Amino acid sequence: MSGIRREILMKRFARGSEWRKWDLHVHPPGTTLSNAYQDIDGVPALDVFCKIVHESDVQAIGITDYFSLDGFFTFKERYDQLYPSTTKVFFPNLEIRLNESVNRGTEPVDFHLIFPPGLTREEADRFLQELKTQITIEDDKQKSCAELSGATDFQSATVSRSDIKKAINSHYGDNPNRQDKLLLIAAASAIRADAGSQRKRALADSIDKMANGYFGNPRNVGYFLDPSRLDGELPIIPKPVFSGCDAHSFADLESCLGKQVSHPNEKHITWIKADLTFEGLQQTLSEPEERVRIQATAPDQKEPYKVISRIKFANSADFPEEVVFNPGLNAIIGSRSSGKSALLAYIAHAVDPVYTVDQQVAAGFERDEAGPGAAHSWESVSDLDYGVEWCAAEASEGRVIYIPQNSLFSISERPADITEKIQPAVFRQDPDFESEFHQAMSVLSDCNRVISTEVRNWFGLAEEMRALAIEIRGLGDSEAIKSRHKKLKAEIEVLQEASSLTAEEVEQYQGVMADITLIKAQLAGIVVEQRTLGPYVEPGSDEGTYIPTAEVALSIEATPDPESMPEALGQTLKSILEEGTSQIIASIGSVIVDYRSALDVSYLSKEQEIKDIEKENGELIDKNVANVQIASLVNDSQQQASTLAEIEKRSALSQAKAVCQDQALASTKEALEKRANTLDVLITGFNESNHQLDGLSFRIESGYEKEVVSEISQKLNRRERSPYLKSHGGIDLAKVLAEPEKFVAYVGAGNQGLRQGQDACMVTIAVLSLTEEIRFVASLEGDHIGGFRKSSMTPGKQAMFALTLILAESEEPWPLLIDQPEDDLDSRSLCDVVVKDLLSRKRERQIIMVTHNANLVLGADSEEVIVANRHGDDRPNRDNKTFAYLSGSLEYSKPKDDKEQFTLESAGIREHACDILDGGEVAFQKRKEKYRI
């Protein structure tokens, strides 16, 4: 499509997506089957058809024929000759029959392939040549749709689903993104399977998965919007349902096109909210519930005197002549200082100047500084002539609800949300408290980190002590071993007296063997240490040398966290940490390498010691070995001595670990006390100060979220008796925190029952790390909101905090003008609360919203997007206007043209949105894949 054509379409759809009548199933004169059109009074049937279509209020029509698109091109060529300035759009609709039947009547399934309006005859001919039917000719060759001729062919032809896929892949390439090329619309009535046939139900499900949408009636809509409609299968994509008149005669056309008919043949009107383009039709796939309606009257109708049609600027060098608006959701986007908020302010001021100034003052402006933008008061722009026009031409007055930037705190009944919204206001009012708050949060995090580390240490030590106890038991009872050792010494003395060995020689031999046994034990210890160091060192290039491996690493956590500091300071802290980490890792590696080398030296030294001892005492050893009985007893005696030494060693190690456990408990208790004291100091200090803002007073409460405590309690076996469980089975946090050492020991000993699959260490950490939550409370005229109690504020007072309450408070659906609500909301509130509320509220009132958040623009399916641009050398506007605005729908796309002189005209709405909005490109992709379940 030419650039000129694109500009025409953009101007035509400046109000974005609007509800229009569409009928995608209309047969023209000459249709290959059931053609009942006739010339009238000498006027060709095609001309009469074109006239009726042109004079109807249906804006988009699918020109339909069976297995052929000739009728479309014949009609389109004649229509363009007769009505060259038309605003209607026509879609080629290829109607085919599948070679499968599903319903009880065994009717073949009708399938419609709807192509973009710009399809050329050459493209259509190629596709029809590639689309094979089940009719065969010589050599079992399948006839293509292009080869069909005569009534018999068209009446008997069918197409398989596999041949449809082959034709699409052949024409558009393998595995194309099919819905960007054409849409497959099935007849809803033909795929309702016989309930008694499992095979037909499976066939219907397969066809459902292939189709993009359906021709049907209002009764079909709920079924095809239900993702769980396929029995026993995973969710399936919700799909749009369209109603078509299926006209084959002038009687059909005149009575059904764009009309609701009850009898004899039921016909319905299809409304689609989209541009009159194939891209507009595609939006029904992303938003089938929001973009398509089958009903007699236009959806979402509003009182015209409560809908702003446009704002006009007379003879202004700064603003365009006019900006038009959609009756639904209008999203104004643009870069910083591009005129977004200014446009919104001018709209509000044009409707009600006094109210607008009052709202800006409430948002923080000084009354004499309130105006459309920074450094521009209303007094300074008083010579500018501007005003709004309502959709009711006779209306001259109206109202708006105007929410300036930074004036909204969207707060629901959930206290956590209230805290998140009050907190920024408190911080802006008291920067010193903000610093104290963040410092306290950092201390709390550090305390919990210490608690987690020390509890892990305690349980780790407990496990090691249990392992040592098992080893000690495996070595034997120490008293029994001592007794055995004493008995062996007595037996040796008896044998010595009877042997040729002197007492001195026996004693000397025992000493020699003890030395050798000790050295061998040391060798075994060296081998264990070498094995321990194995992952951290590897042989160097020179024989006998080592170098550190990549397993030598270091993780440093600093307080304050560099991420929480100002950017420049944070970067400096990060550099220091990185440099320090590298140096420490190098030092650690060097120490490990040196230690490993020393082990080799020590091992060789110990081996040599044994050789020297054996050489020096060779005669004595040989003499004792000759006395086999004495040698055996001596060896047994030494073994008992060695075992006793090992028991004593492990016992000492276990006692050392017990000391470390006590230290871990002491550190844990100290961290708990520090955490409690930090919270107390923060809360007391804040509450003793007088914090007020615009009549609101603030204080802080702390406590535990019931759901969190319940979740922790669920980890424990609440059926077993425990000193740390209350009578109702919930954990007694007060008792736990009063004696944390006893609680840790109680759990560590296995006395506290846990739910299956729960780890004692992790449960203990979860309990002790549970920190009282800080919540802000706001009070106004004796009522409060926030904290741990239910709000006592009326809806009128809560409206100060919440967008939803402001909207609910307004009895009349006047337009809502809201400036960047995302500035005061978290992402969850945006997606879960505001987007849903916008989707609902835009049906009853017009909304004009300034935003830079893609979730609000796309998630709420904005009907019109207005792109704002401020004139500059690198972003010029036509006629050098200071501010310019480009409006259109989300579906309007035009590849960016860097050669285009004027910024707004260089791309479509979609491209500008991707460039401007936070997360715009990702949001568009997510929207496209919204129902790819």
Structural description of this entry:
The chain is an alpha/beta fold and 933 residues long. It has 4 domains: 292 residues, TIM Barrel (Alpha-Beta Barrel), CATH 3.20.20; 193 residues, Rossmann fold (3-Layer(aba) Sandwich); 130 residues, no CATH class; 202 residues, no CATH class. 47% of the residues lie in helices and 15% in strands. The protein is built from 30 helices and 26 strands. The strands form 6 sheets. Strands 9-8-7-4-3-2-1-10-11 form a 9-stranded mixed beta sheet, with helices on both faces. Strands 16-23-24-14-25-26 form a 6-stranded mixed beta sheet, sandwiched between helices. Helix 27 links the parallel strand 23 and strand 24. Helix 17 packs across helix 20. The N terminus is likely disordered.
Quick structural overview:
With 933 residues, this protein is of the alpha/beta class. The protein is built from 30 helices and 26 strands. The longest helix has 61 residues, at 628-688.
Derived structural class: alpha/beta
Strand order of the largest sheet: 9-8-7-4-3-2-1-10-11
CATH architecture descriptor name of the largest domain = Alpha-Beta Barrel
Question: What does the main sheet amount to?
Answer: 9 strands, mixed
Strand percentage lies at: 5-15%
Shape: elongated
Q: Helicity range of the residues?
A: 40-55%
Domains counted in the coordinates: how many? Answer: 4
